[in-house]
Structures are given as structure tokens and as C-alpha cells.
Amino acid sequence: MRLKLKSLLVFLLFFSLFSCKKKEEIELKPGAYYAFVYDKYHYGIAKILVLDSVGIHLLIYNNKYRSIPEKLFSDSLQISTMSFSDELNNGYLPLKRELFLQMKPEFLKLEEISKVEMDYYRIWKENPVYLDGEFMGKE
Predict the structure, then answer these.
(1) What is the pLDDT of residues 46-100, one digit of tens each?
(2) Is the pTM here over 0.70, yes or no?
(3) In angstroms, what CA-CA distances link 98 with 21, 70, 95, 127, 137?
(4) What is the rounded distance in angstroms from the CA atom of residue 27 to the CA atom of residue 14?
(5) What CA–CA distance (Å, rounded) separates 67 from 101?
(6) Which of helix, strand or coil describes residue 62?
(7) Taking the mean position of all CA atoms in its chain, how far away is CA 2?
(8) Buried b (16+ CB within 10 A) or exposed e, 10-21
């Protein structure tokens, strides 16, 4: 009897571990702002400009937060002055989806993409720049 109970408990434990739903993947949307893990103590802000079959085209902001902001005022955001490559405009980052998802993005809000914001993507599209010889981290 004891062995059967122990076997049943082990079965139930394994069943519960493997039958749990996989955490749903975050839905990525053009025009959406996301908080992402910037470093051990801060969250950064990114806005998706374009999603394509390979990756995500992001606009990165200078603003950093100690926690995920409850309200985001987009008019107070400053486009990053950091350039991720000599050839890329400041604040613009084409990135592989998997890399962005590893940054643990949290959806904040959705807004229309302005013409000025889309210019970052248009400039890149006219002359695609490769990061470290790889397009959006693609192998």
C-alpha cells in the first residue's frame, strides 16, 4: 500500500510539472512601448517600429527606471544618444526576436508610430546595416 501511494505521489508530481501550460509568449506589436531589463537595477524603454520575418526594429530611449513604470508619458521620453553601430542612427536597433524576448519585455502601452520615428526604419531599409556582420543577430 505504501509503495502504491509513493508511486502515485511521484506520478502526480511529474504529471503536474509536465502538464502545466508553457508560459505564453508575449505578443509583440508595432507601435507598442515595452519596458525591458536594462541592467541589474534598471528597466529601459523600447518602442517597436516594425516587425518582420527575421526580427524587430526598435527605437530605444535614454530613460531608465528602477521598476516598470505604471504610467508612461511618451512625450517625456528621450531617444537614446547611444549608437549601437557606427552605421546605425542613434537609438535605432534592429534586433532578432529571441534576443528581445530574453530582455524580458513588459508591454506598457500602444501608440501610433510617427513619421519621424518611422524615418529611423526607412533610413535603415535604404541601406541595411549589419550588426557585427550579422543581420539582427541572425546565425
Answers:
(1) 999 999 887 899 999 999 999 999 999 989 999 887 765 555 557 888 888 888 8
(2) yes
(3) 20, 25, 8, 24, 9
(4) 29
(5) 18
(6) strand
(7) 50
(8) eeeeeeeeeeee
